[in-house]
């Protein structure tokens, strides 16, 4: 028994040093070598700093809207709604989002609304939408800003990020970057 207890204590100490000291130190060192120094990717617009990798709330017609958030884009409380697809409250919330989307985007048939535009992500902080999510909003944004639809479509295409190495993940568009580019184009 004494042999087993000593072996367990030794293993605990080794794993404690490895997993509670060495691994976090390695991750910290790698983060410090990143372009942002491990402090998060930020963008600045009109003297205000925004975190690029945290979803932002946009509700004006002249901006592309982000994916809905179950936590009102509060990064301190990242979470999903934890409501299943058969939950009546959740279905009512999604229906309200669909109705709101259709009011602001009347030229988009209900069947063509991308699901990400009416359902919250698992974290509630998703900063990206799909090209389809942006395409569904192009007409509204162009009209609100007095821009040609083709010009806004070209801006969306320019900000579409391809999958990592062409293999991992879907195409996506960072909503904050796209909206800042729109502001620069409109000189707002």
Automatic annotation (TrEMBL):
Query: What exactly does this protein do?
Result: Part of the high-affinity ATP-driven potassium transport (or Kdp) system, which catalyzes the hydrolysis of ATP coupled with the electrogenic transport of potassium into the cytoplasm. This subunit acts as a catalytic chaperone that increases the ATP-binding affinity of the ATP-hydrolyzing subunit KdpB by the formation of a transient KdpB/KdpC/ATP ternary complex.
Any one Gene Ontology MF annotation carried by this entry is: ATP binding
In the record, the note on similarity to other proteins reads: Belongs to the KdpC family.
Instruction: Show the GO cellular component annotation of the record.
Output: plasma membrane
Q: Which UniProt keywords apply?
A: ATP-binding, Cell membrane, Ion transport, Membrane, Nucleotide-binding, Potassium, Potassium transport, Transmembrane, Transmembrane helix, Transport
Q: Where, per UniProt, does this protein localize? A: Cell membrane
Domain of life of the organism encoding this protein: Bacteria
Pfam families hit by this protein: KdpC
Which HAMAP family does the UniProt entry name for this protein?
Answer: KdpC
Quaternary structure and interacting proteins, as annotated: The system is composed of three essential subunits: KdpA, KdpB and KdpC.
The UniProt record lists the keyword Acetylation: no
Q: What is the protein's given name?
A: Potassium-transporting ATPase KdpC subunit
Q: Does the keyword Phosphoprotein apply?
A: no
This protein's encoding gene: kdpC
| Principal location listed in the UniProt entry | membrane
Its membrane topology is listed as: Single-pass membrane protein
